[in-house]
Every structure is written in structure tokens, then in C-alpha cells.
Here is the input.
Amino acid sequence: DLQICQHRAPTCCTKKMEESYQAAVRRERTQSIQALNFELKYMIVGHITAFQEAFESLLRFAENRTSSLFETAYRPMAKEAAEPVKELFTDISLYILGAETTVESAVLRFFDSLFPLVYSRLINPGITDLSEDYTECLRLTRQDINPFGHYSKNMVTELSKSLWASRMLSQALSLGIEVINTTEHAAVSKECSRALVRMQYCPHCQGLTLIRPCVGYCLNVMRGCLASVSELDAQWREFISVLEYLTNGMAASHDLETALSGIWNSINEAILHAQLNGPQLSATVDKVCGQPKQQEGNLSSANIVSVKEVTETQTFVMAHTSLNNKRREFINYMKRSRTFYASIAERLCDGDLVMRDSSTCWNGEDVV
Here is the structure.
């Protein structure tokens, strides 16, 4: 009553043993593919972790640098500016990790929150009554009178380019893990499991426990079993090309590190621009929002301070170097995996599974 290992000679197998063999080959095939995938998956997961750690380090550095700007140059508004600064960098982090938000909305929301502070603490430092209605009016007016000139738009442009590449790379790496996980658990068809039993276990039914499959026979069986997986070859090669494009982009015109480290300078230039145009801004705001209560002796625009480069660059340089090195190592490794899905049958038929150095092997029917 054997269904797979039928042979003219006497056999020591039963139908129940055949069923056990089928369960064994399914388990073994999954384990074999998992073993092949492990190194590739480990490399991608490792890079995701390294990328996120280096990115968070750069982000913390950029946030600290921006906070220092307010504490050193714009002390009257430093305490109130802390929350908008924190929100800006949280939004940037969420964007890179794939959240449904945009760089433009994050930056413009920051400048909306910043304008009431700049107006009441720097341009008109004598304002005493900053009600919710007046603050909201200032926020809405910011969009119309553009107090920060082209600096706010430039910041959107610079960050959008660099953060886009980082966001895409983060999503691409997650997609790579998803693809690998899917191939590990691809179902073994009934036809495939029967072919694997015939190749690996039918010799045992004849007492030939040391005979292993012929190389060509193994390749034919594995290619048939893995036809759906090997169809990923073209898409995987394209995926590697996209990763290469994104990593090169991040190191060139879309340089994440340069964009993040330049945020403080863009904000500083924007505030200086608003202060220098203080009288015109005040006249427009008075028309739109009305005149708030002020103390005697208004010190309008008296405390313009130009800020030089903030120090503490060592942390930034280390994170920058670390990220560049990780990117270079990673893409060189991934380029070597271009043929991963095209050669998966060859790799499964390597090693101890087949008979390579002997003239005697199993061809599916007999010893040859």
C-alpha cells in the first residue's frame, strides 16, 4: 500500500512511515531555508537597529543644539520654546519611522508656535497680556505675513530631501524582513513533499541509509519545490538596487546628518529675520490682532543676538562616522546577496545532502 516509495524489491517501509517522512521533509525544508535566511535576516535586522541608534543619537544632538540656541541667545523665550522644540524633533522621528505625517506640517507647526514667542518676548518684550485669543491670532497671522522670510521654507526643503531618503530606507528594510519571513513559511505542496521523500527517504526503504541523492537529481527536485520562491529573483535584485540608491542618496544630496545638524542655524536665521523686520511686523499684527497691553519703556528689538557655531561636535562626528560606516558595510553585503533567490536550490543541495565525491548516488529510482 506504499504511495511514494514503490519498488519491485522487498521493502521495510509502511504507509505510516511514508506519512512520517512527509512530515519530516516539510520540517527539514523549513529549517534549511531558515538557516539560509538567518545570515541575511541578521544583517538587515542589525542594520535597522544600528541605523535607528545612530539616527536617535543624531536627533538628540540636534535637539540639544537647538535648545542651547534658545538658552544662550534667546533666554527670554527659552523656557516657553522648549515644548515646540521637543514636538518638532518628535515629529521628525515619527516621520522617519513611517508615521502618516509630513516634514512640512511638522516644520510649519513649529514656526506657528514660535511666532507668538518671538513677537511677545523679542520684538515687543513689553507685552504683558498674552491671552489665548491673542496667541492664536498671532499663530494664524504667521501664515499670512511670513515673519521668518524664506528660512522656514528652506528648512522644509532641506529636511524633506534628507528625511525622505531615511524614511524610505527604514520602510525598505522592514519590507526586506517581511519578504524573508514569508519565504521561510511558504507552504510545501503535496507534490513537492512526495518528491522530497522520494529523494531523501525512499533509499532507506531498501536499507540504503548511507546513499545520498545525485547532485543533478537534487537540483531538479529543489527547483521544482522552490519555483514560487525563485520567482522573487527579479524583484529581489530590484530591491537591492533601490537600497543602493537610497544609501547613496543619504550619503550625498540627502545627507541626514547635515540636515539635522543645520536645524538650529535655520531657526536662528529665521528669528533674526523676524527681529530685523520687527517694526513692519508690529504694524501688521496691530491691524489684524489689535494692540495688546504693554509695560512702559518698550524695548522693541533691542536684544538681537547673532549666534556662532555651538560646540560639542564630537558626539555628532562619532554618530555621523558610525552611520556612514554602517551604511557602507550594509550595502556591500546586500549587493553580494543579489542572487539569493536565484541560487537558493543550489545552496540547499550543497553540503551533506548530496553525494559529491562518490560515483554512487540515488537517482529517485535506484542506485546509480
Summary: Residues 155 and 266 are 6 Å apart (CA to CA). Residues 15-73 form the longest helix (59 residues). The chain is about 70% helix and 0% strand. Residues 15-291+324-349 form one domain.
